Every structure is written in structure tokens, then in C-alpha cells.
Amino acid sequence: MTDHPSPDAVAVLISPVDRQPELAAIRAAVAGLGGSVTGVADLGTTPADGGPGPLQVQQLAIRGVPWVPLRGPLGALAAAGGWDVVCRAPWLHLGEPLLVVLDVDSTLITAEVIELLAAHVGREAEVAAVTDRAMRGEIDFAESLHQRVRVLAGLPVSVFGDVRAVVRPTPGVPAMIAAVNASGGRVGVVSGGFCEVVEPLAAELGIAYARANRLEVADGRLTGRVQGAVVDRAEKARALRRYAADAGVSMDRTVAIGDGANDLDMLGLAALGIAFNAKPAVRAAADASLSGGRLDVVPAVLGRQLT
Description:
Helix content is 38%, strand content 24%. The protein is of the alpha/beta class. It folds into 2 domains: 1-90, ACT domain (Alpha-Beta Plaits); 94-306, HAD superfamily/HAD-like (Rossmann fold), CATH 3.40.50. The protein has a 7-stranded mixed sheet, sandwiched between helices. Strands 2-3-1-4 form a 4-stranded antiparallel sheet. α1 runs antiparallel to α2 and α7 (159-166) crosses α9 (195-205).
């Protein structure tokens, strides 16, 4: 890469291979803010593995303007062109340990666990409608969770095994976790879902930290109640702080990724908050948005060459 050794900002472009970003327009937008693009590096392409994509990633080094003012103009170009851009601080990269914390449902995994559970009582569509409203921020998350959990009353605890068997990580998750761990960093998850599914999944994937709700059980069956306080948006932010303290990582080296309104506090607290396939209000509030349906671009967003 032929960029300046000390850029003021980094912009990472993620695009389908058949939809090249217009670098001339990007350079003009940066110049309009008083800056210049001093280098462009090709960070590679995600694998053609049957999942979304493939996606190509380019990294731009920028001088003369910090990353925050870049987000609006470059984000507008990305939205018009059908690609994504992440503008970040130059020091937030995988050359040093980072903490990356993700939501679980529809972020780390492709499904909503509570909807999979509700399918066992024939009420998946009803629960999905409430979930959607909660993720859009239209109703209180804790209230919505209690409402959805009540429909699970009477299910045997064996249902967790049935659900775990069909849960699938989002494409690129193993590669993302491997890259963060290889850099000396840590990955954590915090979920408004359920530890009975989240904890085994985290152990299987090599995730260091996990926090989720626990469902109350009596006589081998779900009671339809949550045990203890609900993991809501405030608790997600607290979990991010706890994970960072345990990992010995400063908050300016943290990344949070999520899709719903209950992720907003966590996204706002992290040094870089990324909305992933997210609801409109979450995309608007986050530092950046990824819409390509893959998480193996995250290491590239953080400066790592794709393998």
C-alpha cells in the first residue's frame, strides 16, 4: 500500500464484485471536505461459498479530514451506488488486540431463536410480528420479551436441543472470529435471547464472552417466564464495558455489531458501532452499516487482508 504513514482517517469500501465504487466521486467528496485520498489498497474478496456475495473490499487512506465528517458524504455515495462504506479511526485495526461484541439473533446467527422456539407451539408468525416491532423500537423490548416468552409455557427443555440443531451462524462468522482471536483480540456476544442456546454456540465458535436471558424451568418444562432481569439495551452496553475491562482493552478499541433497537446503546458506546442488515432507525444511528449479509468482511473493515 502506498498511503501516507499517518492517515487522519480510513474509509473501507465493501461492494459486490459487479458494482465497483466510483473512486473519482469518492475523491471529489473527500476533497470537498478539505482532505485527500493518499492511498488505495485492495483487501481482497470474500469466498464464493454459496452465501451472499462475493464482496470485494478496498481500503482508502485519507489525510486532511477526520473520519466522522466523512461518514455523511461517503455514506450517501454508498447508498446511491449499492455498496457499503465504513469510516473509522486509523488506530482501530487488527494490528493490535480489539474487542468485538455482537448481538446474536439475526447478527451472529441467521435466525431469531425465540421464533424457532415458538414454532414448536405453532405460534411462530405471531411471535415474529412482535419481534419485528421490538427490533424497530416501536415497543419496549423487555415488555415484548415477556409477551413472547409466555407463549412458550409448557414446552419441554429438550426443545433447546432441537433448536440448537437448526441454528446456523451467519456466513463468514468463523473466519471473523478466527481473525480477531489470531490478532490477540476477543469476541463476545450479548443477546436478548437465551443462554440455553447462546452459551453452547459461543463455546463451539470460540467466543470468549456470552450474556443472555435464562428461561425459567419447572419439572422439565418452560414456565413461560424469564428468570431474573431481562437483558435489554442498557444491559448490552454494560456487558460491553465488562467484557472490555476483563479483556484489558480500552473502550476506544471496541467494536459492536447489531441489528435491532435494543443494540443502540451498545453501538453508541463502542468506538465503532456497526449496524448489520439492520432496521432503518439502527442504520441511521450507527457509525456504519453493513448490508452484504456476511461477517467475514469485518476483519477487512479493521484492516486485515482477506484470505
